[in-house]
Amino acid sequence: MARRQPICRPATQLSHALIMTLCLALLGCAEPQNAPSASPYKEPSAYSNKEPSAAFNEKPLASRNNEASAPSHKALAAAQFSGRNALRHIAAQVTLGPRSPYHPRAKARTLDYIETHLKPLTTRIARQPFVRHGLNGTNVWASIDGSDGDGAGRLMLGAHWDTRPFADRDANIDHRQRPVLGANDGGSGVAVLLEVARVLQKQPARSSVDLLFFDFEDMGQIDGLPFSIGARAFVAAQPDYRVDGGAIIDMVCDQRLRIPREGYSNSHAPNVLDAIWQSAARQSATVFVDAPGVPIVDDHLPFLEAGIAVVDLIHYPFPSSWHTLNDRVENCSAANLAQVGRTLLDFIYHHGAIER
Ligand code: 1BN
Ligand code: ZN
Questions:
Q1: Centroid of ligand 2 to alpha carbon of 149 (angstroms)
Q2: What digits encode the pLDDT tens for the residues 273-324?
Q3: Domain spans of the chain?
Q4: What is the pLDDT of residues 19-59, one digit of tens each?
């Protein structure tokens, strides 16, 4: 159900530093566990060969895993994902303001918010500034080392942290010059990744996980700009980047969430989709619909073009709030966020169980 009351108070009443402190305390992730390192990512992954997704090309997952009928420790760990925590992360981002190029302070505060939450939870975290199409953007790359180092593989989860500068699909023509708040479109993917990081820090996976936050996904068709500017900048800056598989998480909080098998993912990384849908079945996550979806231009495309098996988990048909002023926290569902987060954790925990 949607929660009308954001936990964090509006910036007009409290400074954003205080908001951040309150959120950290409320989310129970204020105790640093791992010494953060601001150094840029140095070690190439053991999977940095040009073979895409080797682990997903072996044998069907079902034959690799010995599933007992009692809930496994992996299922129990995945259940630690809190949809309410994720919803609070969405509310906090919306409170910081639109994450558009016309709101640089909100963007700076959002980057601080992401970094402040992830530093105690991750092994490495680094900002990656870039300039593309005359825009100064920042991606964030955080990594959580698996308990087996890279011996159990490496996965990636990505989300865009920017929001669309204009609500150009709003039914009210007077709203179309105003910025989208991006609870769902932008906020929800970031929120899921932050809450996944909290669970992984408490219940480490054997596989390593990269968490990637992309800027400027949502500038498409504004002044002739393309979509996915930040994701493309990331792939261009890391030509040797390789993971066993990955997923972009985009627009996953709507109350009527429905995630089909997005078209490009289905044709270029069906094994990753299969593994995620198996996780969804184990987690009774009915928002994942086992039906083909249309191809969508999103942050997975630069990865697929580079031969990296990254799929797009996105609500389709897009909800009516898409690119309108109605993209608000009130339309988000903690229960649906939990289905998505638990499925992703199940996917990560099971990937670590694959014999290599
Ligand atoms: C996703 C969220 N997208 C934009 N906001 C990607 C997209 C690109 C969707 C083109 C439809 C058309
Ligand atoms: Zn959008």
A1: 35
A2: 999 999 999 999 999 999 999 999 999 999 999 999 999 999 999 999 999 9
A3: 64-353
A4: 333 333 344 332 222 222 222 222 223 222 233 344 554 33
- CATH code 1.10.10.10 for 64-353: no
CA distance 117 to 114: 5
Pocket of ligand 1 contains residue 185 by CB under 6 Å = yes
Ligand 1 centre distance from Cα of residue 222 (Å): 12
Among candidates 250, 139, 259, which has minimal Cα distance to 189? 250
Q: Which of 108, 116, 111, 122 is nearest to 36 (CA)?
A: 122
Residue to substitute in 262, 264, 298 for testing ligand 1 pocket (most ligand atoms within 8 angstroms of CB): 298
What's the maximum distance between 2 C-alpha atoms anywhere in the chain? Answer: 57
Burial of 114 (0-12, 13-18, 19+ CB in 10 A): buried
What ligand is nearest to the CA atom of residue 327? 2
In ligand 1, which atom is closest to the CA atom of 323? 5
